[in-house]
Amino acid sequence: xxxxxxxxxxxxxxxxxxxxxxxxxxxxxxxxxxxxxxxxxxxxxxxxxxxxxxxxxxxxxxxxxxxxxxxxxxxxxxxxxxxxxxxxxxxxxxxxxxxxxxxxxxxxxxxxxxxxxxxxxxxxxxxxxxxxxxxxxxxxxxxxxxxxxxxxxxxxxxxxxxxxxxxxxxxxxxxxxxxxxxxxxxxxxxxxxxxxxxxxxxxxxxxxxxxxxxxxxxxxxxxxxxxxxxxxxxxxxxxxxxxxxxxxxxxxxxxxxxxxxxxxxxxxxxxxxxxxxxxxxxxxxxxxxxxxxxxxxxxxxxxxxxxxxxxxxxxxxxxxxxxxxxxxxxxxxxxxxxxxxxxxxxxxxxxxxxxxxxxxxxxxxxxxxxxxxxxxxxxxxxxx
Length: 384
Fold this sequence. Notes:
Blueprint: E1 2-6, H1 12-15, E2 23-26, E3 34-37, E4 53-56, H2 66-71, E5 75-77, H3 84-100, H4 102-110, H5 119-126, E6 139-143, H6 147-158, E7 162-166, H7 172-176, E8 183-185, H8 188-194, E9 197-200, H9 214-217, E10 224-228, H10 237-246, E11 249-254, E12 267-269, H11 278-298, E13 318-325, H12 330-340, E14 344-353, E15 356-364, H13 369-373, E16 378-383
């Protein structure tokens, strides 16, 4: 029985994909083959030797020690795009929140409770303090045009905005799904200079941490409105509060509240609701489960954050799947070991991702897996 451990509640549309005759899904498994997780932290988790895969039902993997997983031969999956529509919708709402002073207006209306027949007159007298601009005709700058950024770009075009997008890693697939009216630029400074609204949709890592800071604000229009539904750490909070105080930034809408942001003037802090829809949770759970099953049963990798995508159909007696360092001579040593055992390699796929690689071999005959595991640079050998 293959044990899959859940560290959070995972939607049934995901867990129902596992054949209960072969899989045991629980939150108490002691030696799981795989883990399904959403937000629970695994940073201090000790990995059992049987663990081969972790699937994050979501995009970010900051709660998973990815480097340590790779060294242990554990494939880490995420579910990019599964929550894209949910984040898109909240970002569009964020455009309105950044413009129309809706949160302030809602709070003010509560102060009118008990005024009786005077409420109507008080509303007409007080509403002018909440005047804000329309988004139609304004320029939206999107930093990142992936699954989420592309959907927002198209929606903003439909709402009558001008859209400029910057993404140095824009894929052909993503580009094909973006409306022709979206202007894609290779010059992020040009985006900063032209945009009335800027929405962030880039990953968080060592290079992007605090990348939206005082130097960047200086390149923007006065009165720019910033939306952050990606990661809180992308924006330097001290610098944006100073930019708000000076009038450089008119409004900051973020899905990542911090103590210094809560209650700050012209900051709208939302409690991380980007992916908090039943549809998004279902999509993430389903994708995570399907990817796990394909890896466990077939060795195929799709949407791994630490290993390359790779697929190979089994036609021979064995499908040998090897996680190894991306260094010279590993492949030749692997193929030699298989040949020395009298087996024949029918097909082979080798893919790399930075310092790591994944090799799949469709083999007729038998193989000495212990000998393969002893090859320098090899960290995990599976035979299916």
